[in-house]
Fold:
Amino acid sequence: MSASFDLLYSETEEELRSAVRALLTDRCPPAAILARVEGGRAHDPELWQTLAAGIGATGLLVPEKLGGQGASHREAAVVLEELGRAVAPVPYLTSGVLATEVLLGCDPACAEVTTLLREVAAGRQVCVPAVPLTLAPGAPLPAPVRDTGGGLLSGSVGFVADAVVADVLLVLADTGLYAVPVAEVSLTPLVPLDLTRPLADVRLDGAAGTRLADPATARAAVAGALLAGAGLLASEQVGIAEWCLTETVAHVRTRHQFNRPIGSFQALKHRLARLWLDVASARAAARAAADALATGTADAPLTIAVAQAYCSGVAVRAAEECVQLHGGIGMTWEHPAHLYLKRAKADSAALGSAGHHRGLVADFAELPAP
Structure:
């Protein structure tokens, strides 16, 4: 690659990390998440309001003149890293990143766009793009919903993440992008693998929406949001892997067999050393993707594809090792390891599989396909 990346965290980013981690440690311990998903209430609205209004995380990507923080993708990546480390049940990826990126890709002179951006930045509304969570950057966009006349929309979209906790959906229609209140649509909740990120099928039968952009602008905005979302999802995957590695090392230091810590066994040392190298490499790849997005480098699509192709597998491997090396307790519902494994597996399919991103790497680097 011709571009050079700043992979180090700035002082501001470390301060943001400390604030988010302190909040999540206090308000989002594993036991609380387990209790919420057991009760079928994954979303934590009080935590979301503190994260949005108290810390200002939902406005990081929004310019100050529109009520946001005027920060960059590097700061948003730090937030996602901490949310992944806590498997926090909040719609930050969908509302704070994807929806925000879609709105920023629309005409900034449009009053409806700026009003909605201000609401999202302040955390007063949860806005979610009505696209399948598995939709990948570089893949063809799905057939748009039909505008039957007068801004009344009909059609369906499957596997929409966080739709059940949203206030507004951003719907891609054949006549452009529309903001549709959730009250106008029919939602069918699905049973997701990751219980902390709910999925639903969305059905529109003459739903009334507010037009935000023309078809060409809308499709470009959605494509840009998918690219940014995939790049920042790598940071969430790093957070997952880091928690799994840290907890596993702590466990093997205290768990004894044959009157010695199991972490002293050479085979386990090798497995954990390999995992540490994987997590360190994944962090570098994720930081490069965030920096590429922040600086707008021409190599950003390639850097993001590399990050997703690598970080996806590392998060899954770290979660699998966490479950296995915890032994019997790691297989139980009471231990949070399964939450991390499920989030890692779900993230590996979100915004494109590792195989899809490896194909993009081959295309961008002009390598022959296998």
The chain has a mean pLDDT of 90. The first strand starts at residue 127 and ends at 129. The two ends are 22 Å apart (CA to CA).
